[in-house]
Amino acid sequence: MRPMRPTGLFSPPALWRKLSTRLKYFISLVIFVILLAVVFSEGLMAAASSSGDAWVTNLIDGMVQNQTGIALLGYVYNINIPTRQLQIEWLIIGCGDYRSANTVLYSHGRCGRLSREIDFYVDGTIDPTYAYNPRSNPHPPNSDIPTFVQAMQGFTTTHLLVLYAWKGLDQQYGYPFDGYQLDTTFTAIDHETNQSLPILVLRAIDATDNFFPTLRYDIATEAEDENGATILTRTMEFALARTGFAKTYVLTLFIVNWALTAVVAFITVSAGVGRPMVIVSLCSVFLIVRVGLGSSKRPAEYSKVDVGEDNNYEHSMSEAMKKARLAPDIA
Length: 331
Fold this sequence. Notes:
This protein is an alpha+beta fold. It is built from six helices and eleven strands. A hairpin with a 7-residue loop joins β4 and β5. α2 runs antiparallel to α4. Keywords: Membrane, Transmembrane, Transmembrane helix.
């Protein structure tokens, strides 16, 4: 025996058939927009939460290998597009002989906390931008392993984004597909020997404010100090573009707004059948107003009629009626 299908007023097919075509289109559009927002938001959040720091570890180990030097990892934040400035928090890491014992940071044993006093110079400054002193790191009384304090393991720098224009427009007019770039150079000087030390890694690995950094180059370079001596430097350039989540969010709002605009336009066009009734209603309102204004003027007009004129009018009417009664007799 086959199961009976629901029939009557409360069956879904019957309810759907009773709806107008315009309402069906509207409901379908609303369901599509909701599903689109849920799928993209949940998918992007799941992808973001599943990403880890393993790629940073592989990056450092792949570039450092068995070398001795310094690694600087940057976290981009406080991106101010109108002023074309951003700030970067740099994490200081020592690798090889410059690593403090029993410390590991983003590595499989090759890199850890820096063990030397280093003066960092950024973009050719005369005075050091930051002076790192490992002896100032706190540690428990019965242990030589320092306690990690983030503010003491890094420093913050402010940079100006590269400015360029095209026919009077800058990058911001390409929102949300606008892109920006930054180039910078670092120098590390040993505080005791006044010798430049090699910087093995100079990377921006993360960003906030819905931007994501993409490295263009990170190379070892050289420069000259005030005395004309050659010093080791590190220069890099990276680009900033909006994340996929930010682009999807903006495009979703764009699609939803234009979809709602299309719905309103569709309702307006489809309501053209009732246009004659609207015209009739407007004409009726106009006639009512005209009649009301006309009736308000009649008493004033009648008040201007003279009583003598009324008597003459009645006399002429009586004479005409008498002539009408005598007309058959004359004939």
